[in-house]
Specification:
globular, 8 strands, eight-stranded mixed β-sheet
């Protein structure tokens, strides 16, 4: 077990998280801890992987709940002693594209930030001490081009602001970890056909996760503190 790459994926029961967990679990050397608010929602993924001889470690996780995050941290510490890769995928989009920022219910903004920013930071803070025990830690924050300041537009304002803030978290964390073996990057999977992206999206989740897998498996001389789509840098 010590030779495995211990990879934690949040929000792994559906969409991009599920696709990322599936892809990483089929790669040699990776042991994926797949997490979801309701662990039973991970059973289809576990069963599908088992048919091809691959395994995941399902675990409950609600990134908005301190006790849930601490329980995951303690379980990983006791079982594996470290985390090698953290894919911060869990997120929500609850405001409409037609919502004006002048009419945005502040409770929607609070709820969105609590999950997409605060929850991601909560999980990262909890697992980073375990990542310091890794030979080469990787943190992948699943962001969105909708959070790019360079191309900022109207529509879904709470989601946009939360992803912009997530990119700020990436930059700050990468700066604080400069000089260590831990790399931190934001990635944009593009518009994908998921519950969040909707049926009109042009990409399948399996296509969108290519950049997630790339950032999760960067070599020692790979980048840190960047924003990437299709494995190429994009503007903030």
């Amino acid at each position: 077990m010590e030779e495995r790459i211990i990879t934690v994926v949040s929000g792994a029961s559906r969409g991009l998280g599920r696709a990322a967990a599936h892809r990483l679990a089929t790669m040699d050397g990776h042991l994926v801890v797949a997490t979801a608010r309701n662990p039973e929602d991970l059973e289809p993924l576990r069963s599908k992987l088992a048919l091809s001889g691959h395994v995941i470690e399902p675990h409950q996780l609600d990134i908005t709940d301190d006790a849930s995050v601490i329980a995951l941290r303690d379980w990983i510490a006791a079982r594996f002693g470290r985390v090698d890769v953290l894919v911060n995928n869990a997120g929500i989009l609850i405001d409409r594209h037609s919502t004006s920022i002048l009419e945005l219910p502040l409770e929607q903004l609070r709820e969105t930030l609590e999950t997409n920013l605060v929850g991601t930071l909560r999980l990262t803070q909890a697992l980073l001490p375990l990542m310091r025990a890794s030979r080469a830690g990787r943190i992948v924050n699943v962001a969105s081009s909708m959070g790019q300041l360079a191309e900022m537009d109207a529509g879904t304002p709470a989601y946009r602001m939360s992803k912009t803030a997530l990119n700020a978290l990436t930059r700050i964390l990468a700066a604080e970890l400069a000089g260590t073996r831990i790399k931190v990057n934001s990635v944009c999977p593009g518009w994908c056909r998921t519950d969040l992206g909707g049926p009109e999206a042009p990409r399948l989740p399996e296509e969108g996760v290519e950049v997630v897998v790339w950032a999760a498996t960067l070599p020692d001389d790979g980048p840190s503190g960047g924003f990437f789509r299709d494995c190429e840098p994009i503007s903030w």
